[in-house]
Every structure is written in C-alpha cells, then in structure tokens.
Amino acid sequence: MAQHVEINPDDSAIPFSLGLKALRSASTQKTHKTGTVRIPTSTGKDFIAGEGAEDGANWIDEDGNQTPLVDTDAIDKAVDEISQKADAASANADKAYEEAKKTGQLAVTASKTEYATSTDATATPSDGWSETPPTYVDGQYTWLRITVTYGDGRTELSNPVLMTGPKGTKGEKGDTGDTGTAGAAGVSVTSLTTFWQLATDTPAPPTGAGNPSGWSMTEPTIPDGYDGKLYRTIRTIMSDGTATWTTPDVDSMFAYMARTYKTASGAVTVSNEAKQTAEGNAETIKQVSATANDALSKATTVETNFDGFKTEVSQTYQTKADMSTYSTKSYVDETSKSVALGVVQDYKGADGSGLATKSEVSATKDNIALAVQGTYTGDDDSLKSLQSSLDITRDKVTIAFSNAEAAAGVGTQLSEYQTANDTNVTDLTERLNAEIAARQAYITFGQDSNNPVMEMGAASSTAKMRLTNTQMQFLIGSVIAAYISNDRLNINNADILQTLRIGKYAFVPRSDGHMSLKYVG
C-alpha cells in the first residue's frame, strides 16, 4: 500500500506562527500602508496588527475593543520562540516533503492479479495466466500471482501461489435454517405501448403514465410531399404504477418519407409504409404516376413472421377516357411446409365486360398442384367460368375441369392424339421392317474364323464383294478372283482391254495389232 507522511504542528504554535509571518511582512513593508492583519487566538481575543491597530499591534475582542499588548518583552520572547518553532516546523516540513517524495517512489501505484490452472499441484503453470478468475473444474488446480508496480515505474512479480487443493469429500448435511422474513413485493412490467409522432426535429421524451399529447398509438399515414421524419417511443408501465419512456428515435422501418415529384404532365408519388410488431414485419413500397390521360400505380409488399414470408408485386393501369382498368399481380407465399406462387390478371372494361385469370402452382411434401382459372363477365354465358387443375401425388395424377364439356373435349383430344400416335408408330414400324429387309437382301453380316465379315451382293448373284479386317475380296462363286491387302492388288487372271500402265510407262496396243511400251510421264 502507498505510504503518506502527516504534518501535525502544535496547536499553540499555529496562531503565533501566523502572527510571526504577519509581523515579518509588516516589518519589511513598514513604509507602506499595507492594511490590517487580524489573527484569532485561544485567549478569547484576536491579535491585530497593521493600519487598523491603535498601537501598531493590539489585542481586540469580538466587540472591536482594542487593548495594548502589556508585556512587550514577553511578546519579543514569545516572538523569538515562535520564530524558532516556525523554523523547526519549516525544517520538518522540508524533511517530510523529501521523505514523502522518496516514499512516493517506493509506494505501490498499481497491482494486477492473475490466475492460471494446471492438472499438477506441484508444477507452476508457465502460460495461460489471465486476470479473469477461472471456473472450478474437478481435477484442476488454480494458481495465483500478483504483479506490483511502484511509483518509480519498477514492477515486481510474486511467486505463484496454489489457491485450490483437491476436491474434498461431501460434508454432512447442516441443520435447517430459520425461515426468513417475507421479501418486499416484486415489480413487474404490465404493459408496453408504442407511440408515433411526425416531426422535423427529435421531440422531447414524454413523462408520466398517461397518453402524451402530440403522440399517436397508431402509426400515422404519411402525407404527400412530407419531408420530415417519423419518430417512435415506447412506454413501459410497471405493476407499481410507475412509467418509463424510451428516447424518441426515427422508426427503423421508415426508410424514407412520402415524396411527390411534380412534372409538366402529372405527378409521381412514392411512399413507404412499414409496420413492425412482436410477431413480424410488413413493408409496402408504392408508386403512383398520374397524367392527364391515365394513371399507373405500382406496389411491392413484403411480409415476414414466424410462420414464413409473403411477397406481392402488383400494377394497375387505368385510362381516364373510358375508365377501363387493367391490373396484374404476382405473389410468392412460403412456409416451412409449403410454397405457392401465382399470377393474377384482371381487366374491367368501360362497358361492364371483364376477364379475370389466375394461374397458381403450389407444392407440399405430398403433392404438387397446378391450377388455371378464368372468369368472364359479358354476354356469353358459356364462358362465365372455366377452370382446369392438375394434382400430382406419389401414386396418381388427377386432372379436373370446371365443367363436363371441357373435360369431354380434353378427353376427346387425348383419345385422338393416342389414335394418331398409334397409327404413326405402326406405319413407322412397317416402313422400318421393309427397309431392313431390303438392305438384308444385298448386305449380310457374319464371321469367318471369329473375324467380322460383311458381304455385298444379291443373294442370287455369283459375283460378290467381301470386306474383312485385312482384305477387300472379289468373289466369283466361292473363288476369290482378286483381293486388295497391304496396299497391293492381287488377281488370278487379268484381261487388259486398253492400256496397262506401270509407273511412267504404259503398254499401248497399236493399230497393226502389235503393242508398244511408251513413256507417258
């Protein structure tokens, strides 16, 4: 621990020391009127010196009456004694300061306690030291060491000390203690209420347990052209009736406020509506474009909760001339057990006619369902509502229609398709068999000594050509008249009707019946 030196002067020396200092100051400035010095003493009277003293130095009581200092010698003696005591006190103070300075250098300015664990009660851990006390684990030993920092910057590290021993045996069960006094009644939260306010600057936090003025318990609608912010605060009411409020902050789901852009032909309004509850979030982005002739609105909504999420993208177009509208919408709805997506279109004419269509695909662990439906509004009653669906499970496929006529029509189409397909297959089979038979009449495949052989020629012809892995043969009946193999033509008998050429020379018959060998290049 740090050491400190206390200076405790004698009580009787304090007033005389101060008086001495006053007299010394007065004696060094006696040619100047420096004022009056008044010093309280333990005699019931104060010592006064300077301009305010009648004799230069006097006693003065609490009523302001002054009396002379009767014994001047005693005063001088007392002054000398006080001077000596003051000088001694000053010397003691200087000595105390030096000792304090030295002590400060030796004083402890900081300490750090570290812990480490090991599985051996005799071996000091070399690493793993931390200022966080470890959690007790059976079979491990906890060690402690302390790093001390002194005033002069030096540090000392103590030897590690074993803090825990082996786990002891379970002690005997103690006596049951006395029943304690009943505790104070607990305080719990009874309600949480969210309040909203539109403002350009951060509003002050509400106070009290009542509904604050200027705040709304429902999220306000953002007006067109608004460029401020939406602030939110939450009131917590406790069971004892007290209430606390959170600091107002901008709603986290409020991405941007409603903004309106004006153009020469119309306006585009963009808005973002966000709602956040304990069970989920919902956010909708809208855009409305208006001109002198028509209007177009678009919206995208995303909802998330504990069960899943749902997205929807929609668009509506309306003409101002005949007030006809056309709208489309696509959506995805997904949970942990199913997913569905679809597209919806709706047209409404100025004459009252209309057509609404919907196509949807949904899937679960047991089936996949597809449905297409349409509803017509007009003069043709036969087209009021049409719907077809397809349901696929592990063991069957079910097709359904909204009326028997449509089902019969599809059934007829399927039957006609099956008949046409069977006819096509039969015709193709016959033509293929005829083609195979025709080719087999001129080309046959076989083997000769385990080597593949292909022969070409009519079955009734004696002249054929045979192709093997090593030769191209020309047969007359069963005799090989000639064959080509290893880049050579081998022939048993040859009749050359015109010219026989060998390299750059040729045997050419002459008109007189003889033959010439000519160079032909």
Q: What can you see in these coordinates?
A:
With 521 residues, this protein is α+β, with helices and mostly antiparallel strands. Among the domains are: 13-106, no CATH class; 109-162, no CATH class; 187-254, no CATH class; 444-519. Helices cover 17% and strands 42% of the residues. Strands 13-14-15-16-17-18-19-20-21-22-23 form an 11-stranded antiparallel beta sheet. The longest helix has 37 residues, at 404-440.
Strand content bin: 35-45%
The rough form would be described as: elongated
Q: Unreliable stretches, pLDDT < 50, 5 or more residues?
A: 1-5, 28-34, 255-268
**C-alpha-based Rg, rounded:** 58 Å
Number of strands: 32
Helicity level: 10-25%
How many strands, what sense, and barrel or not for the largest sheet? Answer: 11 strands, antiparallel
Structural class: alpha+beta
Strands in their spatial order, largest beta sheet: 13-14-15-16-17-18-19-20-21-22-23
Specify the number of helices.
3
Measured between the Cα atoms of the first and last residue, the distance is 124 Å
**Mean pLDDT over all positions:** 75
